[in-house]
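Reopening this one. Same input as before:
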Amino acid sequence: MKELIQNLIEGYRLESEEFMYNDSTFILAHYPELQKSDFFLFQFGKVSMFRQKVDGNLKKFEYELNSMIGTLRSDKLLEYKSRYIEKNLSLIIVAENDEGTEDINWMLKSEENYYQSRKYILTYSQGELEVLNDKIKEIDKTLVLSLTELVSLNSDKLKNFSDEPWFNLLTRIFTKIPFLNYHVTDGEKRVLEDIDKSIFSKLDELNLIGVYNSILEHDMGADINDLVELITKED
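Same output, byte for byte:
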């Protein structure tokens, strides 16, 4: 997953640096100085590692994250203070779910805590990632266009995406990595517009426009299970 994210960072021409802190790997990505001030801090680990540190407790997890961000801003990220990193930082926890079906709501709920930074929790399994990587290789385009084309080609899975683990991961990648929706080149924009039309056409064909509108009104930072429940109710 780290390699995929590094490729996305490069594809968006973001500057980045990788470093270690408290036995965890981090990547800080940001736009060149004269462009946008947004900063994206990725922390990589496993669900079991995060659980062990805080005993699977939401309040402890929130405190741990906020304390860590405060320390990093005054230490390793101090050079970005003049660019107002304290107001423009997003933390993305990229965690391999090595616990199977164990409850991880204690992690996901931390997205609602905006103190110190915006927070996103991107979980995945090795199985999901392997299948997604195989499908990406089948499409000979840039990584971002490969991902968006996979959404278009598999739009029929929007109704039951929870039954397709790799597609579930694909949707999480788009909702949990903020800069994916920030900008595209003119050529990419035309392709994305075609994909957008294709998705809307498929949604209309499947009578899912109502579901789509409900999703837009829903907090996409919430637990993915809540989103599945929402879709089920709309069915």
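So the earlier flakiness isn't reproducible anymore. For the record, Residues 2-124 form one domain.
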